[in-house]
Amino acid sequence: MAALVDDLVAVVAALGERPVLAGALMGGMTSLFGQSDRGDLARALILVDIVPRVGPGGIERIKAFMTGDPNGFGSLEEVAEAVRAYNPHRTRPPSPEGLRKNVRLHEDGRWYWHWDPAFLRIDGEPARAATHEQARAAAARVRVPTLLVRGEQSDIVSDEGVAELLELIPGAQHVDVSGTGHVDVSGTGHMVAGDDNDVFPRRLLGFLTDLRDLSAGA
């Protein structure tokens, strides 16, 4: 995890101002650890379907999905089928064109995920791994407004995981902004942003607007 945090700190330094960090899974955990290590790194955190106590079954299912199909896909329709196999609860869009942002067209004419599956094999790279206790300790040091967004059908973040995060990061008086807001997006699994593109940005914009108003009144 230290290696990813170092990268994040370098990116934030290049921005020249404190951003609101938003991330899912590895991105969210990196943001959590980065803010924990450097209390002035971000103005706020948005954690998408990630908490210190994650469901191991859900994590393994995501790893299997993200490391699958190393030989790519022959069409966007095949990409859509892979997504549906992973998340059968997701409403089928009228066209697979929206998946272009998740894949890249290689010179061989096949579509590949925009991530490198090899990056997810962290067994030999402990610098990118984090234990539950390490994540708990990191969350306990966070003192910026934090929003947790969880898919209602998530198999990664349980009710117990949510309760633990809310206990670790103070802010019960201002659940939506000053402390930790918890938003369940109905009918979604882990792929929250892709599952409900109306609810997800609306929740985030509400959080960011409240954060701006809070800063203006300070």
From TrEMBL:
Domain of life: Bacteria
Matches recorded under InterPro entries: AB_hydrolase_fold (IPR029058), Carboxylesterase_BioH (IPR050228)
Transmembrane segments: none
Coiled coil: none
Stored PANTHER family: HYDROLASE ALPHA/BETA FOLD FAMILY, PEROXISOMAL MEMBRANE PROTEIN LPX1
Protein name, as recorded: AB hydrolase-1 domain-containing protein
